[in-house]
Write a structure and sequence with these properties.
Layout lengths: L38 E3 L5 E5 L5 E2 L3 H4 L4 E11 L2 E3 L9 E11 L4 E8 L10 E11 L6 E4 L12 E7 L7 E8 L8 E10 L4 E11 L7 E6 L4 E10 L1
Antiparallel strand pairs: 1-2, 2-3, 4-15, 5-14, 6-11, 6-15, 7-10, 7-14, 8-9, 8-13, 11-12, 12-13
């Protein structure tokens, strides 16, 4: 077997294809070697996926998912004013799922919240209508209740959508949950979502929060921002695509 040693192999023109092997041949990348590329396409020129060079994928071909969730992006915030997803929300998927972990505020007794954008994150504040109810129980086994929380709902408001309220800032007062956002790239229908959050309140209550609603716009939503109503945020938030 012959070997060719070279630092780089390129075509004579940038627009030409570089073919390795022929029909029926196997092109082998030796174990231990790393094949680095940001965009992978099939033989028909269709993009299978694109990476930003840091492991975050976009333009993932839906045929690769096989009905499973695809992790598109991960954001880790440490004492940040907000966490924003400004890329990867497009017509590739009809369902986007955000999962958030270890969400903790710098300020006591605040709400974790989200806002949407139709201009790639240049501005936020899409009008929303939502409902909100909660089950709670205190650490001392008192105060159990299941109630609609009027103060946390929205009625045609451009304010941030509450995901959980009354959250404390102690080490054991974090929250976690997930958001399902449906067909955000539709230019025909409003954008529905629902949220399920478990958290610890500032006054030692376990909270099980339920929120659902819609952003009342037929423009495509292409960016989501998370923050607290006051103070900075620690959090890990992951965005997945499905369907």
């Amino acid at each position: 077997m012959s070997k060719v040693y070279a630092d780089a192999i390129a075509t004579t023109e940038a627009s030409q294809d570089l073919t390795l092997g022929g029909s029926g041949d196997n092109v082998i990348v030796t174990a231990g070697a790393t094949l680095k590329t940001n965009t992978v396409k099939d033989s028909g020129g269709n993009t299978l996926w694109t990476s930003d060079g840091s492991g975050n994928l976009s333009s993932v071909n839906a045929g690769l998912a096989g009905g499973n969730m695809v992790l598109l992006s991960t954001q880790t915030a440490s004492n940040a004013a907000s966490v924003s997803f400004t890329s990867g929300i497009d017509n590739t998927y009809r369902l986007y799922i955000f999962k958030f972990y270890d969400v903790n505020p710098a300020t006591d007794n605040v709400q974790f919240q989200m806002t949407a954008s139709v201009d790639g994150g240049s501005s936020y504040g899409v009008t929303a209508t939502t409902t909100f109810f909660r089950a709670v129980l205190g650490e001392n086994d008192s105060g159990a209740s299941l109630a609609y929380i009027t103060a946390a709902d929205l009625a045609q408001s451009a304010s941030a959508v509450p995901l959980t309220t009354n959250q404390g800032n102690a080490a054991d007062e974090n929250s976690a949950g997930e958001i399902h956002l449906f067909n955000p790239s539709s230019t025909t229908y409003v954008k529905h979502f629902y949220v399920r959050t478990g958290g610890m309140s500032y006054n030692n209550y376990s909270q099980d929060d339920f929120c659902a609603g819609y952003w009342n716009t037929t423009d495509d939503i292409d960016a989501i921002q998370f923050s607290f109503s006051s103070g900075n945020v620690d959090a890990v938030i992951k965005m997945y695509g499905l369907g």
